[in-house]
Design a protein that fits this description.
The protein is mainly α. The chain has helices spanning 2-13, 18-27, 37-49, 73-84, 95-106, 111-136, 144-176, and strands spanning 16-17, 53-55, 68-71. It is elongated and about 70 Å long.
């Protein structure tokens, strides 16, 4: 149920069209909650149907003009309710970890190369987050909104830091594995 709430949040920050929302998802919200153009438009229709948002009146009626949306009081109330509700953390479901478990049984062919690729991707993402932090959160930005947004960014930085450290450790472990065929090993993990 998070996509509608992500859209409500974005619209409360700034009334927008579906295209503008898609761009904002690509630039900021998408770092922690991604959605396709089609998903956003579908969700806008649903939110409008239940009375959480409305299309803003067009300044000049023209065919094919993009609609901008704003949040109605019922949408703000729903977002407030959802924000205050308790929610359990989601269990980690990462195919790479499952593939490592399988490699303990069937062999490690191809895994080390993919670990290196993942490390590179996480290092690049970490560098991007650190650049955003330096650019958008200089010392002195202490409004409540700034502090909460920076907290979200810190979660991304900490997560990418974790992955880069873990992947570095995993690659070191691969360097210590015997060169023999590991397909005959049984899982002990």
């Amino acid at each position: 149920m998070s996509l509608p709430h992500a859209i409500l949040t974005a619209l409360l920050e700034k009334p927008s069209s579906g295209l503008e929302l898609t761009r904002r998802f690509d630039r900021s919200i998408g770092y922690f909650w991604s959605a396709s153009h089609q998903q956003i438009y579908r969700e806008l229709g649903k939110l409008e149907a239940v009375g959480y948002i409305r299309a803003l009146p067009a300044e000049q009626p023209t065919r094919g003009q993009k609609k901008s949306y704003e949040v109605l009081p019922a949408g703000r109330a729903e977002l407030t309710r959802w924000t205050a509700a308790s929610q359990d953390p989601k269990p980690l479901r990462d195919p790479l970890l499952l593939r490592l478990r399988a490699a303990a049984v069937v062999g490690t062919a191809g895994i080390e190369e993919d670990l290196r690729r993942h490390l590179d991707l996480h290092q690049r993402q970490l560098a991007e987050y650190e650049e955003i932090q330096q650019r958008d959160f200089p010392p002195g930005r202490q409004t409540p909104q700034d502090r909460l947004q920076h907290l979200i960014l810190r979660a991304g930085i900490d997560l990418e830091t974790f992955w880069t450290h873990w992947l570095t450790h995993a690659l070191q472990e691969f360097g210590r594995l015997p060169a023999d065929d590991s397909a005959s090993r049984e899982s002990t993990v």
